[in-house]
# Entry
Amino acid sequence: EFDFGGEIRSVQDGYQTRSTFEQCGDGIYREELSVSRSGEVDQRSFEKLAGSSCAIGRRPFGLCEDKQTLSRTCIGAFLAQAAHLEAASVYAFEKLVRELAAFGAPRSLIDAAIDAIEDELAHARDVARLARAYGARTVLPEVAPSTLRSKLEVALDNVSEGCVRETFGAAVATYQAECASDPRVRAVMRKIAEDETQHARFSWELQAWLASQLSESEAELVAAAKTRAMQQLGQALVSGLDPADEKALGFPSCEAATSLFNGLCQTLWSGPSDGVEELSA
# Structure
């Protein structure tokens, strides 16, 4: 029996369904389907309602959209998307290791990026296991090849994906580790929260080093990119999950997510600080 996570209505020639769900890291969608009594499925409508508050891992440049997730439940689909993004983060950190080596970056930064690769591999395996427990099939990410970036390009990406998204993701994971009603989720999120906090710290340390390599005009571009990333995240704090799934995952409600977001705005994201001291507090 399939859980559509929405409404199912019987009509003369079959059924009509309407579901609202989140594609983790992409957005919140509403889909309406018609299902005939002979089993034929027709998509009546599909619309994006909002952005995604799911900030899991670094999204690599060239990440292809995942259109293959199959799940018997909405929570399974959510977890499958999360596992997909965790696996995609491996590509992001692998490329970052090569770029940092080319830049002649401090060995401590390169080693931290290498450690993050192992962390993300473990996260992808653990979250994929949770997704399967909720009836979902996960798929490996596809990432288009791309050339190594300049220091400015890395700084623009790192401030958005690391200093903003990964930092918020670490806060959300910490919340889930305490609040998830499913003990399997709590166990997985405890380890992810610990690792993602270290990844967030790495992001701020990397940003501080990159800032020393950039011109004043380039630094202004990076500051503007951070502001844009904050604005985009602030407009996407609705999980798209129903209350039961939200409780099982410990995913923060809109009110709780807003509180986490505002707290980061007032501390880590409040000014030109490199953020490392606040993250350690």
Remarks:
- The helical segments are 74-103, 107-133, 151-179, 183-211, 216-234, 243-249, 254-266, 276-280.
- The longest strand covers residues 14-23.
